[in-house]
Write a structure and sequence with these properties.
The complex is a heterodimer. Helices cover 27% and strands 29% of the residues of chain A. Chain A is an alpha+beta fold. A six-stranded antiparallel sheet of chain A has the order 7-2-8-1-14-13, covered by helices on one side. In chain A, β15 and β16 form a beta hairpin. In chain A, α2 packs antiparallel against α3. The longest helix of chain A has 22 residues. Chain A is globular, with a radius of gyration of 20 Å. Chain B folds into two domains: 102 residues, Alpha-Beta Plaits (2-Layer Sandwich); 384 residues, TIM Barrel, CATH 3.20.20.70. Helix content of chain B is 27%, strand content 19%. Chain B is built from 16 helices and 23 strands. In chain B, α9 packs parallel to α11 and α12 packs across α15. The chains are: A alpha+beta, B alpha/beta. At the A-B interface, α5 and α9 of A face β9 and α11 of B.
């Protein structure tokens, strides 16, 4: 089972905290990967929060291809962090030769454009880079977005952390929000793109479970948006639907749950807003999910969200202290990073519930 | 030797031979009075037998004349194998036996093309039986419990708008509808197909409609029924139960005079309107009701004299899909104030995908469903040549249409319903489930319903006398004496019980793949043991 988690804090923290959240949840041989998306960055990235940050893992040739592309498209590099790995013997990691985290400034003629146009540009660039690297087999590009960093690798999460010196807490890599997942997708080939969290235009999402409507979702999403690509994991469907509902349709967040796990028709008929809910259910029937799932997502505005499948077949718990809220598949993770919290305030969202944590760490919960 | 005439027809030439066991027969005559087509008669034969009629045994051979049940050796009265004689015989003394050396098909064409009812007898192959629900949830995604979990088994009937075109606006953080969207009903994915009053006896039609009302009102299953091209009784048109009925308009427009006249007095909107362009059993042919079945009440409902009613092969005045949308869809939508979905039914054809594509592009967004009827669909009357040699299998056609919509990102906007042979082997739930996984929103069944009422016809030439007015079960006849054979209440109950079991069995298939709602288009849940089928439908091949 994938273990997923997230931490949102008023105080910037290191990725090691996310690892401490995840490692107690490990079961048996369940240690095939680690991935995280950091948002609201601090440390060495503090000065560049408004500059799009490119996260990629590649070969030397891949790095050159990316550089050539960015140069030819007038992106100006403003900062770069290339981790110096701790390549000690015996680590369980299938590392790529290079990990590059690089801030760019927009091409000059784009700098005064509205954010909506910049968003499209950033997506186009990421998709193009992905295409180039994929065709050449020279690397992976995970995100290209201001104030967002993505790291994904195959191997034992502890060893991956050692390799990237994430245990050191040296202050260079800090964030106020991290979404994290341990273990690789096992339905399909183990590939880096299949590792959650997935990222698209400011939306980050990871899921624990199985989307048995994967084929339906995929066949529909493929034609909805050019950014809905890959489909290496059935959990990408959740991200794309989140993006579609909030970013494309611009519906309020509460309708996301109505799209992925709509109420039964009999219940809809009892509601005041039945016309709207029925229309949504009918129009977006192909975005409904089935199977056991828990979702954790981060929105572009910094809010964090979690909800479950309509039968509550996967666990999730939300815990909080004065300055931190964490979401975890299993409570043992929360106990590790916030042992002194008031456990009576832990939230175990039910199958119809959505929990949203806003930027003041206020926790909202409602039933769909 | 020349006493034998080669052209004479004898029992050995007919499809069915009557096997009569004289030793068991009491000559009660029940079989003869029951046989609706006069295939048997009482007669005598001279036999050479050994008798002993003394007090002590004294066997001697003698010629005697004894009474027997004889088969009538004419094409017109050829036994249809319905087995009513066997059903009525108290002593199991008589039954029809299939004759493998029959020459009947060859010899039956003296009076023009053979007409019959039933299904195709040549193309009854079962693609669906080579498909298995093979993607079972184990371990990581648990199978559901078909009894304890809740399942939401509903399908759309009506034009579904893409989310971007829904008439929503935001008010106080909530979406509200600012104007009407096309009507979409949430119905049970099993539709009772269009069998008219006329094709069916009024009592058989009543039994089916009673079952529909019961399923809706007592069992909570929103099953819908299509009227067929023959109109409906005024009392039903003016009742609340009209909401369960899909009114059919076919090329003969039979019954619509009465429907239109009833409109001002309708208490409820019908469930929908179905424009019938074609029928899978006899594609390219219009409806056919032979004069023998045009009884007085049929004449009254349809507003016709007693004559063979041949509907035209197409709707007069329509020569394109666009025109059909503009004329028929718009006018029928308008007739009910755009509150009632209007769908279209076509015979499956090599051209179905083009038609579906065109309907998907309809700018008015008023086509509320595409019903495709495959070659294995049934009919009350058709030319045998059409039944056996024209048509198109439904399974790949539904898949092709679904994938055509997927290619354009339009899947689900015009719901797809498939029919023609669903439930042929008795397992409608399995057939429906597989069709749904291949892309259908639901299925429609007709023949299966009358089989539940007692019809004994099958795709191997049994009975199939629906066109003659002599239906031995009282289902497809207007002869009041024959109609009395049908117990309406028991018939309706049989259909209700079957649908309730269908519902349980559908859950029993949804549960192991971990789905609580219909897996429309979830082809990954299916595998096929036939390579060609797997390849054609895009399924995993397994062996």
């Amino acid at each position: 089972m994938c273990r997923i988690g997230s931490i949102k804090s008023k105080v910037a923290f290191s990725p090691s905290k996310a690892l401490y959240l995840m490692l107690p949840q490990q079961e048996g041989h369940d240690n095939s990967g680690f991935a995280m998306v950091m948002q609201d960055l601090y440390g060495i990235f503090t000065p560049y929060k408004d500059k799009p940050l490119l996260s990629l893992a590649c070969t030397q040739r891949g790095a050159q291809m990316v550089e050539d592309f960015m140069d030819s498209h007038n992106f100006e590099q403003v900062a770069e962090w290339i981790p110096v790995p701790n390549n000690q013997p015996g680590l369980d990691i299938k590392a790529m030769p290079y990990y590059i985290f690089r801030n760019y400034d927009y091409p000059e003629y784009y700098r005064d454009k509205p954010m909506s146009e910049k968003e499209e540009l950033l997506l186009n660039v990421r998709l193009k880079l992905r295409e180039i690297l994929e065709a050449a087999g020279e690397g992976y590009v995970y995100s290209f977005w201001p104030d967002v960093l993505t790291l994904k690798e195959i191997g034992d999460p502890r060893d991956i952390a050692t390799y990237f010196r994430l245990w050191d807490d040296n202050g260079c890599l800090m964030a106020k929000s991290i979404v994290v997942q341990c273990r690789q997708n096992t339905n399909y080939d183990i590939v880096r793109y299949a590792a959650h969290p997935f990222f698209l235009q400011g939306y980050t999402l990871c899921a624990n479970g199985e989307n048995t409507f994967y084929t339906k979702n995929k066949e529909f999403q493929k034609s909805l948006h050019r950014g809905y690509v890959g489909f290496e994991s059935d959990s990408q469907n959740f991200l794309y639907t989140l993006h579609y509902v909030l970013h494309e349709l611009k519906w309020p967040i509460k309708y996301y749950k109505h799209v992925i796990t709509p109420l039964p028709f009999a219940e809809i008929d009892q509601r005041e807003d039945k016309d709207v809910l029925k229309a949504i259910r009918q129009s977006l029937a192909n975005l409904e999910i089935n199977g056991p799932n828990t979702i954790i997502a981060n929105l572009p505005d910094g809010r964090m969200l979690t909800c479950c499948d309509s039968k509550k077949l996967r666990p999730v718990v939300v815990g909080q202290t004065d300055d931190t809220v964490a979401i975890s598949s299993e409570v043992c993770g929360l106990n590790e990073i916030m042992p002194d919290r008031d456990m009576s305030k832990d939230i175990y969202p039910n199958e119809r519930e959505v929990v949203v944590i806003d930027n003041d760490l206020e926790v909202q919960r409602w039933k769909q | 030797m020349e006493a034998v005439k080669s052209q004479d027809i004898c029992k050995a030439d007919l499809k069915w031979n009557i096997e009569h066991i004289m030793e068991r027969c009491t000559m009660c005559g029940s079989c003869i009075s029951t046989c609706t087509i006069g295939a048997i008669k009482a007669g005598v034969i001279r036999v050479d037998k050994t008798f002993s009629d003394d007090i002590k045994p004294n066997p001697r051979r003698t010629h005697r004349t004894i009474p027997v049940i004889k088969q009538v050796n004419t094409i017109a009265n050829a036994c249809i194998g319905c087995g009513m004689c066997a059903k009525v015989c108290p002593n199991n003394a008589i039954r029809p036996v299939r004759n493998l050396d029959s020459r009947q098909t060859l010899l039956s064409r003296d009076a023009g093309p053979i007409k019959r009812g039933g299904r195709t007898n040549l193309n009854a192959q079962r693609t669906l039986d080579h498909i298995i629900v093979g993607r079972i949830s184990q371990m990581t995604d648990p199978s559901l419990d078909s009894i304890r979990h809740t399942f939401d088994i509903r399908s759309p009937f009506g034009r579904v708008l893409p989310a971007t075109e829904l008439p929503f606006s935001l008010k106080d953080g909530k979406l509200v509808m600012v104007h009407k969207a096309p009507p979409v009903r949430s119905i049970y994915p099993l539709i009772f197909s269009d069998m008219s009053i006329g094709a069916l006896s009024t009592r058989a039609w009543e039994a089916v409609s009673m079952a529909v009302a019961y399923l809706n009102e007592k069992c909570g299953l929103p099953v819908r029924m299509s009227s067929g091209e023959g109109g409906m009784p005024s009392r039903l048109l003016e009742s609340e139960q009209l909401k369960y009925m899909i009114l059919q308009i076919a090329s003969g427009h039979f019954g619509w005079n009465r429907i239109i006249k009833a409109m001002p007095r309708m208490k409820a909107d019908p469930a929908g309107v179905l424009i019938k362009i074609g029928q899978g059993a006899k594609p390219g042919d219009g409806g056919l009701l032979q004069a023998a079945k045009v009884a007085e009440h049929v004449q009254a409902i349809r507003g016709v004299p007693k004559a063979t009613l041949s509907s035209p092969p197409n709707h007069q005045g329509l020569y394109s899909i666009e025109e059909s949308v503009q004329k028929m869809h718009l006018s029928l939508n308008a007739a009910f104030g755009f509150r009632v979905p209007v769908a279209i039914k076509c015979a499956a054809s090599a051209t179905s995908v083009s038609v579906y594509n065109n309907l998907l592009r309809d700018p008015y967004k008023i086509c509320g469903g595409f019903f495709i009827d495959g070659i294995q669909g049934g009919t009350g009357a058709a030319n045998e040549i059409s039944l056996d040699h024209t048509g198109h299998p439904i399974v790949s056609k539904i898949r092709d249409c679904y994938l055509a919509a997927v290619k354009q990102g339009l899947q689900g906007q015009i719901p797809l319903y498939g029919g023609g042979g669903i439930g042929m082997t008795g397992n409608a739930a399995a057939d429906a489930f597989k069709m749904i996984c291949l892309g259908a929103n639901g299925v429609f069944v007709g023949k299966m319903l009358i089989q539940l009422l007692g019809c004994v016809g099958n795709e191997e030439g049994r009975c199939n006398a629906c066109n003659t007015g002599k239906c031995p079960t009282g289902i497809c006849t207007q002869d009041p004496r024959l109609v009395k054979r049908l117990d309406v209440d028991r018939g309706a109950q049989k259909i209700v019980d079957y649908v309730l079991t269908f519902d349980k069995e559908l859950r029993k298939l949804m549960a192991p793949i971990g789905n609580s709602t219909l897996p429309v288009g979830r082809s990954d849940a299916l595998v096929s043991t036939d390579k060609a089928i797997a390849e054609q439908l895009g399924l995993q091949y397994v062996c």
